[in-house]
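The authors assume throughout that readers already know how a fold can be written as discrete tokens. Each protein is reduced to its one-letter sequence and a matching series of backbone shape codes. I therefore recommend that a typical entry be quoted early in the introduction. For illustration, here is how one protein appears when written out as sequence plus structure tokens:
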Amino acid sequence: MDMLDSLITSKTRLRLLVKFFIDAANQGHMRGLAEEFNESTNAIRKELNNLCEAGYLERQTIQNRIAYRANTKHPLFASLQNIVHKYLGLDTIVSRVLDRMGDVQQVVLTGDYAAGRDTGTVEVIIVGQTLNETYLEQLASKIYETIGRRVRFTLLGTPLKKGLVLYQNIR
């Protein structure tokens, strides 16, 4: 987990990358991001400009406000999204869930992390029939030991239409 922190020394830049690359649908404007991150608009502006100049983010004017979001056409988009998912431990969560949960149809990220906020508690919904609930009880603590973030699991029987789908196998 500390690997990305040492590579990207700006906490603000790292938080912006998480915000925009965890889900390409996420977008934000400077003031809102400053409030969300509890940072000065100058610090946010500087990082947004750097990321736009490098081509990682794109700007769009909507009702006299500039909205920012990930540039999905950037050649490194998929790699950056992959890195962000690994940094947050999402790949670990999915592989552990699929390992012994049974007939998993969907693994969906919701809550703060889906919105790109690294708050420490990852909310994950697992959709499927006859899921191994006993395994789930041990899983949260095992994942915490591995990724350093708490995971709150919710089990559902029917697929979700909202949230960030991390895995899907709907027949």
